[in-house]
Amino acid sequence: MKQSIEAFFASIKGKRIALIGMGRSHMPLIPLFTKYGAEVIACDKRDEAALGEIAERARADGAALSLGEHYLDGLDADIALRTPGMRFYCDELNALRDRGVQISSEMEIFFDICPCKIFAVTGSDGKTTTTTVIAEMLKEQGYTVHIGGNIGKPLLPEIETIAPTDVCVVELSSFQLISMRQSPDVAVVTNLAPNHLDVHKDMQEYIEAKRNIILYQNKDNKAVLNFDNEITRMFDTSCEGEVVYFSRQRKLHRGAYLDGNTIEYAEDGKIFDVLDIREIRIPGMHNVENYMTAICAVWGEVSVDVIRKVAREFGGVEHRAEFVRELDGVKYYNDSIASSPTRTAGGTLSLYDFKIILIAGGYDKHLDYTALGDVICDKVKLAILMGATADKIETAIRHSPHYRENAPVIIRVRDMEEAVAAAHENAVSGDIVSMSPASASFDLYKDFDARGKHFKALVNAL
Fold first, then answer.
1. Distance between CA 36 and CA 8 in Å, rounded?
2. pLDDT tens, position by position, 184-236
3. Which of 29, 124, 278, 361 could form a disulfide with 390 if both were Cys (CB 3.0 to 4.6 A apart)?
4. What is the 3-state secondary structure of the chain?
């Protein structure tokens, strides 16, 4: 049951609230919570020297600090908000639970008190583009839209500016969803495939975390599911409200599907011609899926004319098959968001009928690269491998039944500088170079954004 914004802020007066992790989700909450009389403790495993200006700002905003290796030992708090990347069942949080501390998160509180309709998107691939397209369509229709969550900025610090007639569009990761006990008005699941198995104890925990996006809906809510994905298709048994599917592979009685080059929408026995996929400005069949997903989410809120206008004008999201530049007839693409094998296979590798130059590899999330090995053999002429997963990717390529000696050629490099140099040296006019790592970034970079920006800077410096 939702509570009002006013009731929530009244409830935290005099409470000791620990913010675990001094990152972008929590720093804006310090002045907000102290304004309403809470005692805020900003907690971080880094020490004050490592935090620098962040620690200074937290103290200036009214927070006490608990820092360093033992930053949660003996923590005295009524409520603790965990950072999304913190394991939900880690020993430190379990110890706090045992002492009676309420464990929550910025997103859980936001869902509890948000006064307007929430559209939320999760999945293994396509979350950010789908979230952004939904937001663009709603904006174009005239709504005041707040976009955040796993994309962009935290929304709880903006809660006082959100009106009941607005809409919120939120991207949710499995790390955020694992503890959620509220579901959105419109829940979207793009697809599910193995991911983040370095953090989740197994694939089933990952699936159940994602299922939370629809588990607490009521009969007035809507769930948008991928019919072509076996896992998401089965989520309908957990849905209380309306279920709408999208599919590239078959015609549907309710939802969006592809018929030749046209996205159709079926509803109540009627079929609507919605969008010619050749109008979609961002390339690739995975983006056709993203548009079908978004159409299902906004159907009834947004006109067909608005859907077509956004498709023609929206140029895509940074780090997602993003065109960087053309040099000497060679086109360079930044697909840094591709942090899993399925994302790389469905990203820039899916866009071209000829073989390309691929830069791949990074932090190991304990994923299976076997199927990607087949795709690389079919779609790549030169694989430039780096990072902790380079061995796994090379093994998948060489063990693929599609592999032939030097088809693809495999080069090993130490870092992005060597990777870009090798691509530039080996590319000829007409080639495509794609940095699509199939791996997380954490072995060399803070996140995929830093990795993508570094790649673009190196390419633009050639």
1. 10
2. 999 999 998 865 555 556 678 888 889 999 999 999 999 999 999 989 998 88
3. 361
4. CCCCHHHHHHHCCCCEEEEECCCCCCCCHHHHHHHCCCEEEEEECCCHHHHCHHHHHHHHCCCEEEECCCCCCCCCCCEEEECCCCCCCCHHHHHHHHCCCEEECHHHHHHHHCCCEEEEEECCCCHHHHHHHHHHHHHHHCCCEEEEECCCECCHHHHHHCCCCCEEEEECCHHHHCCCCCCCCEEEECCCCCCCCCCCCCHHHHHHHHHHHHHCCCCCCEEEEECCCHHHHHHHHHCCCEEEEEECCCCCCCEEEEECCEEEEEECCEEEEEEEHHHCCCCCHHHHHHHHHHHHHHECCECHHHHHHHHHHCCCCCCCCEEEEEECCEEEEECCCCCCHHHHHHCHHHCCCCCEEEEECCECCCCCCHHHHHHHHHHEEEEEECCCCHHHHHHHHHHCCCCECCECEEEECCCHHHHHHHHHHHCCCCCEEEECCCCECCCCCCCHHHHHHHHHHHHHCC
Report how far apart, in Å, the C-alpha atoms of 411 and of each of 112, 230, 349, 418, 426 are.
51, 36, 18, 10, 11
The share of the chain scoring above pLDDT 70, in percent, equals: 98
Give Cβ neighbours of residue 34 (< 8 Å, ≥ 6 apart): 40, 61, 62, 63
Q: Pairing between strand 102-104 and 79-82?
A: parallel
The reported pTM is 0.79
| Phi-psi category of residue 338: left, alpha or beta, with phi > 0 → left and psi -120 to 50 → alpha | beta
pLDDT band at 398 (very low <50, low <70, confident <90, very high): very high
Q: Are 382 and 357 in contact (CB under 8 A)?
A: yes
Q: CA-CA distance, 148 to 364, in Å (whole number)? A: 27
Question: How far apart, in whole angstroms, are the C-alpha atoms of residue 369 and residue 137?
Answer: 36
255-259 and 262-267: which strand pairing?
A: antiparallel
Cα dist from 205 to 15, 98, 210, 224, 275, whole Å? 32, 22, 9, 21, 37
Please report the pLDDT score of residue 194 as a whole number.
Answer: 61
Question: String of b and e for 350-364 (b: at least 16 CB within 10 Å)?
Answer: bbeeebbbbbbbbbb
Q: How does residue 1 score in pLDDT terms, banded at 50, 70 and 90?
A: low
